[in-house]
From TrEMBL:
Role, per record: DNA polymerase that functions in several pathways of DNA repair. Involved in base excision repair (BER) responsible for repair of lesions that give rise to abasic (AP) sites in DNA. Also contributes to DNA double-strand break repair by non-homologous end joining and homologous recombination. Has both template-dependent and template-independent (terminal transferase) DNA polymerase activities. Has also a 5'-deoxyribose-5-phosphate lyase (dRP lyase) activity.
Subcellular compartments: Nucleus
Catalytic activity: DNA(n) + a 2'-deoxyribonucleoside 5'-triphosphate = DNA(n+1) + diphosphate
EC number: 2.7.7.7
Family: Belongs to the DNA polymerase type-X family.
Chief localisation class: nucleus
Biased composition range(s): Acidic residues: 150-166
GO molecular function: DNA binding; DNA-directed DNA polymerase activity; metal ion binding
One GO CC annotation: nucleus
Gene3D superfamilies linked: 5' to 3' exonuclease, C-terminal subdomain, Beta Polymerase, domain 2, DNA polymerase beta, N-terminal domain-like, DNA polymerase, thumb domain
Region feature (Disordered): 1-23, 146-177, 208-244
Protein name, entry field: DNA polymerase
CDD domains linked to this entry: NT_POLXc (cd00141)
Length: 671
């Protein structure tokens, strides 16, 4: 199998993902002629990232190389450029000396090294093409192999009509063909239809030959905004093209009636872009389509596409809040944060099976997701990213720098280079990732932790489980529990001070749990740090309150001691290991800690944006801070436990005071 090239893309790379309103386009490539990306020696993930970057910069991409004015790829020589074009059915003659700019002159095509694209995306500004051009050609008609009995140009078969006659080339028959192909152009198959009309004077056989010449080891299916690659040498990885969906009159009328009966949600009619201002249930009616978008977002995460992550998160949250099954891409485009790219993906999704649009069908799919799931690069990066203690950059280092392809490779070639947390993550990879924690077990763990806190510090200690459990999930990946005590003096030094009282309390609670045999490993015990402890993004450059989220916390590996059925004498504990985080919050920020650790991620992101825009404050789980002074906004998120207030009531009061309004945790599942 040919090797593939991974092109590094900077975090600021523009994307064609549904762009947030605040992301202004810097790089504008809309003036360039149509661009075709050569897939040769490029991985699927890299190819798609480049495509997204170009679309985000306004470039016009084509999936038919015959239409392109600029062809970009991993090409370094003139001869290779010529052969790449010819292999895709584009015949050309070299233009000596080339021309300036793109392929603006009609019939010209330029083959350009891929470095031209990556340099522009990294810098965020247009770069002169000239030094990266390897070949300039004038498109010419392909050579025609004359078959026996085939007429020379200008000869006519007996009875053949002149051009313009009713049944000749220019008559109604030709118009009918054009009309049918034009109608098909709204869905799949545009590129093929266009190719067959490139030379109106050619016979059907000649056009068929030309179509055959355009077939190459990589075959393209033209969709909207997405390149789809089929590897002829790997039949098991072929993606089934979406079915052409023919909507009957009855189906059309049914869709119209359903749409008319729906009440437009307030967040749609008011164009509310903050997900913290709307209800988002755990199981929305469009959950299957959302799951496919989440796979694409994960691919953006693994390719360091920060803009794509944010944009897909916005679209996912908006769709998750929509209370009806989506019927059409036009309906989806009315949702805040869902632009043409998302609508195009839904159009492909809803038409990928013949099922009526209003009915659920888990067989529906999106081709880019099929390609990702078949990609070794994506699946391996996803596996590495699932190791506790391994972030995106480390996962990419494992794959691209070290060349590892499995957990066995990590153990065999890199065990000594791993941190202790990462070693535990590899050792218990299956238990952490495949054996989720049922709600009953989460509740047992929480009861044991709260009891331990009360044993070492008195009955006033209280706690609440956050994360996915609090948002209603049936199973959790880990357990996040926030503990607090109504007396502020117990936490002196936790926020802004020099003492370590809060950390000492965490240590005493963990010590009690270790003595009782519940904790097998203590991987972190301190303030503010620890892998996975920062669940929300605290990035800011405009406030002295930066990194104020320094709550004391402990990261533990937990194992139940009781067996079902009971263990035999001397038998090894066979219960799965669990990840548990204990967070200690003083009463002055108990509400913000609970709100921050409950999630979901996009809810928290939009909450921070809303609070900053409306009040000029910075929100994190350690408190609410005035960006102008860097001081804590007093009274916000403080737990009045001495007055009989519960922890949930404290969070509810905080949301009301922030202007968001109370929203049940089960309605914060923004995906």
């Amino acid at each position: 199998m040919a090797s593939t090239t991974q092109i590094p893309i900077d975090l600021t790379t523009p994307s064609s993902s549904p762009s947030p309103a605040e992301a202004d386009r810097v790089l504008d490539l809309s003036h360039l002629p149509p661009i075709y990306l050569l897939p040769t020696r490029l991985s699927e993930v890299t190819l798609h990232s480049l495509e997204q970057g170009l679309l985000g910069a306004g470039a016009l991409l084509t999936y038919n190389p015959a239409e392109a004015g600029v062809v970009v790829g991993d090409v370094n020589t003139k001869r290779r450029g010529l052969l790449e074009l010819r292999g895709r059915g584009v015949w050309s003659e070299e233009v000596i000396g080339g021309v300036d700019g793109g392929g603006e002159e009609e019939g010209l095509v330029k083959v350009v090294r891929i470095k031209w694209i990556t340099e522009m995306l990294e810098k965020g500004e247009e770069v002169e093409m000239g030094r990266w051009v390897v070949y300039v050609g004038k498109k010419v008609a392909p050579p025609v192999v004359k078959e026996e009995g085939e007429k020379e140009e200008g000869e006519k078969e007996e009875g053949e009509k002149e051009e313009g006659d009713d049944h000749g080339e220019g008559g109604p028959a030709k118009k009918k063909v054009k009309r049918e192909i034009g109608e098909a152009g709204d869905g799949v198959g545009d590129g093929k239809a266009t190719a067959s009309l490139k030379s109106p004077g050619q016979s059907i056989l000649e056009r068929a030959k030309l179509d055959a010449q355009e077939q190459s080891p990589h075959r393209y299916h033209r969709g909207r905004g997405t390149r789809h690659i089929r590897h002829d040498s790997e039949p098991s990885r072929r993606a089934r093209p979406p079915l052409l969906h023919h909507t009957s009159t009855g189906e059309f009328e049914q869709i119209h009636i359903l749409a008319q009966l729906r009440t437009v949600p307030d967040y749609v009619s008011q164009n509310l872009k903050y997900s913290c201002l709307r209800d988002t249930p755990l199981k929305p009616p469009n959950s299957h389509f959302i799951s496919l978008l989440q796979t694409i977002r994960l691919a953006r995460t693994l390719s360091l596409d920060a803009i794509g992550i944010r944009a897909y998160s916005t679209a996912i949250a908006s769709i998750a809040a929509y209370p009806y099954p989506l019927l059409t891409s036009a309906e989806l485009s009315t949702l805040p944060g869902c632009d043409g790219k998302t609508s195009s993906l839904f159009h492909e999704y809803i038409h990928s099976t013949p099922t009526f649009a209003g009915e659920e069908d888990d067989n529906r799919t999106i081709h880019v997701v099929q390609e990702l799931e078949a990609s070794e690069e994506f699946t391996t990066l996803r596996m590495f990213y699932g190791i506790w203690g391994v972030g995106v950059h480390t996962a990419r280092e494992f794959y691209f720098k070290n060349g590892w392809r499995s957990l066995d490779d990590v153990v065999e070639f890199g065990w000594d280079s791993l941190s202790r947390v990462q070693q535990i993550g590899v050792k218990y990879y299956e238990e952490f990732n495949e054996h989720k924690i049922p709600r009953a077990e989460v509740e047992r763990i929480a009861d044991i932790i709260i009891s331990a806190a009360r044993k070492v510090g008195g009955e006033k200690w209280d706690g609440i489980v956050c994360g996915g459990y609090r948002r209603g999930k049936g199973q959790s990946g880990d357990v996040d529990i926030v503990l607090s005590h109504p007396e502020e003096s117990l936490f002196e030094g936790n926020v802004g001070g020099k003492g370590g009282v809060a950390v000492e309390w965490v240590g005493r609670i963990v010590g009690e749990l270790e003595t009782a045999g519940w904790v097998t490993h203590t991987l972190y015990l301190g303030r503010g740090g620890g892998f996975g402890s920062q669940r929300i993004d605290h990035t800011t450059t405009t406030t002295a309150a930066h990194d104020k989220d320094t709550l004391a916390k402990a990261m533990l590996v937990w194992q139940e001691q009781e067996y079902n059925p009971p263990a035999e004498l001397g038998e090894k504990n066979r219960n799965p290991h669990r990840r548990v985080d204990i967070i200690l919050a003083p009463p002055s920020c108990a509400g913000t800690a609970i709100l921050g650790w409950t999630g979901a991620t996009t809810f928290e992101r939009d909450l921070r944006r809303f609070v900053e825009k409306r009040w000029g404050w910075k929100f994190d789980s350690g408190g609410v801070w005035d960006r102008r002074t860097g001081e804590r906004v007093k009274g916000l998120g403080d737990w009045r436990g001495m007055e009989g207030e519960g922890l949930v009531e404290c969070e509810k009061r905080l949301l009301e005071e922030l202007g968001v309004g109370w929203r049940e945790p089960e309605m914060r599942n923004t995906g």
